[in-house]
Specification:
Strand content: 15-25%
Strand order of the largest sheet: 22-23-25-27-29-31-33-35-37-39-40
Structural class: mainly beta
Shape: elongated
Number of helices: 3
Low-confidence stretches: 59-66, 68-73, 260-264
Radius of gyration: 36 Å
Distance between the termini: 54 Å
Mean pLDDT: 83
Number of strands: 42
Helix content: under 10%
Length: 484
């Protein structure tokens, strides 16, 4: 700043100079021209020091399709619209996804789909169904409706309705009670069923078993092995008029069969102990495997039989059970085969389904394929499970093509990465490099490993304080999401 003498007219100098020139002459910055309201007060400055800083971990951005950027998101609790979770302190890591009117209030509890159900105990789970309540620790209710688990830790209810588990380590399978009289479990470590149909492997009750003994019950239904009252050996006569022939070539195992006589029906046991209908229909089938059971009476090719040893075809038409211990319950044009001479594949029913690997299963539906060891397709149409332990529960044109991959339902979803899972929706894809990814929604393509992708995320009952929350928890800090 130049020297100014007393004789200098300072007022005239400031009036004739422009603002910039005046500030320069006086050694001032641009702030000298601003209004006082443009500056923070001391109180406002203190708040700025404690506000969220650029370097702090936040949910920095979410794109239109729901994919997160920059920071990993660890969500301990997930709930979709129409469902509720319990308080954070008592329902840590709980999940309520899909359906409506569901609640998960126990620690690590979860409700997936369905409606009006609640999981209230530690690790309790409900999958689908309606109006069920699970208060058993580490217990599950899958499907059905109006079920209750009041005390059965590590127990399960599958399908049916109005079943109640009160014993630990017990299960209720397709049990059906009524709203007036629920059916309740009777003992621990016991499976409860209304009816039991064993497709393969036979029935085994080793306690008290002795060769040639028969299973006998008392008046209360308790079964034990007892010596046969008589019989066995050669058959000498049958009831007159039954049109039956007897082959006593082997007097220990005689063969009794019905003569044709206008399609009288019935079955015949062959020399290799296989069983088949006496009337096979228009097209006779090839020889059955040893100890096989084939009860279907309609086919358009001789190969459509239970040709594997100990294999079963319970009914239907045009079914083939090829390898040993394979089972087809019924339906149309189903195939249970295997690999390298190993069977144990199962098709329960449906149409044009194929279980083509050892221990693979197709429960039903149409044009479904389980083609790898231990793979499963529950139902639906045109679904494929093609790698070890892969699962497609249902839906249409879904594929699980990696080890331990799963597609629960929906349409045209593909899980081709190890340990990946798609909950449902449409046109979702997890490719092979994105292992352990999970998709909840539609039209999503996974692009990270070990991450959950959603179309939209609604987190209810977010804590308003970080106190007591573990690392990675999300909390609401005055409208801003913070991560502990």
């Amino acid at each position: 700043m130049p020297d100014v003498t007393l004789s200098t007219d300072i007022d005239a100098f400031l009036k004739t100079a422009n603002d910039a020139a005046a500030r320069t002459e006086l050694g001032l910055g641009s702030a000298a021209e601003a209004a006082t309201g443009d500056f923070a007060t001391s109180t406002q400055g203190d708040k700025a020091d404690t506000a969220l800083q650029p370097a702090d971990p936040t949910l920095e951005s979410v794109t239109d399709n729901g994919a997160t950027t920059l920071n990993d998101i660890q969500v301990g609790r997930i709930v979709t619209a129409g469902n509720t979770l319990g308080p954070v302190a008592t329902a840590v890591d709980s999940i309520a996804i899909g359906g409506t009117g569901n609640s998960a209030t126990g620690p690590q509890s979860e409700v997936l789909g369905g409606g009006g159900s609640s999981a209230t105990a530690t690790g309790s789970t409900i999958v689908g169904g309606n109006s069920s309540n699970n208060s058993g620790n580490w217990a599950i209710i899958a499907g059905g409706r109006n079920h209750t688990n009041t005390a059965g830790a590590r127990s399960g209810i599958l399908g049916g309705e109005y079943a109640n588990v009160t014993h630990a380590d017990s299960s209720m399978l397709s049990v059906r009670g009524t709203n007036i009289a629920n059916k309740e479990s009777q003992a621990v470590q016991t499976a409860h069923v209304d009816n039991l149909h064993i497709f393969e492997g036979g029935f085994k009750m080793p306690t008290g078993a002795t060769d040639t003994y028969v299973l006998t019950t008392d008046a209360t239904g308790v079964g034990t092995w007892q010596a046969a009252g008589g019989g066995g050996g050669q058959v000498d006569s049958v009831v007159a008029g039954t049109n039956v022939t007897i082959d006593n070539t082997d007097p220990i195992n005689p063969i009794i069969s019905a003569a044709g006589g206008g399609g009288g029906g019935g079955t015949v046991q062959n020399v290799n102990l296989s069983i088949e209908p006496t009337d096979e229909g228009t097209t006779a089938g090839n020889a059955r495997g040893a100890n096989a059971v084939d009860l279907q009476t309609d086919r358009n090719a001789a190969t459509q039989v239970a040709s594997g040893n100990y294999s079963v075809i319970g009914g239907g038409n045009r079914n083939m059970s090829v390898e040993s211990y394979n089972t087809i319950g019924g339906g149309y044009a189903n195939t249970a085969s295997g690999l390298y001479g190993i069977g144990n594949a199962t098709v329960s029913g449906g149409s044009q389904n194929t279980a083509s690997a050892p221990w693979s299963t197709v429960s039903g539906g149409v044009v479904n394929t389980a083609s790898a060891y231990y793979s499963v397709v529950g139902g639906g149409k045109s679904n494929n499970a093609t790698d070890f332990w892969s699962t497609v529960s249902g839906g249409y044109q879904n594929t699980a093509s990696a080890m331990y991959s799963s597609v629960l339902g929906g349409i045209q979803n593909t899980a081709s990465a190890t340990y990946s899972a798609i909950l449902g929706g449409q046109s979702n894809n997890i490719s092979g490099s994105y292992t352990k990814a999970m998709i909840v929604g539609s039209n999503i393509t996974a692009d990270r490993t070990n991450c959950t992708f959603v179309s939209n995320l609604s987190i209810k009952s977010i804590p308003t304080s970080a106190t007591g929350l573990p690392a990675g928890s999300v909390w609401n800090n005055g409208g801003v999401l913070n991560i502990v």
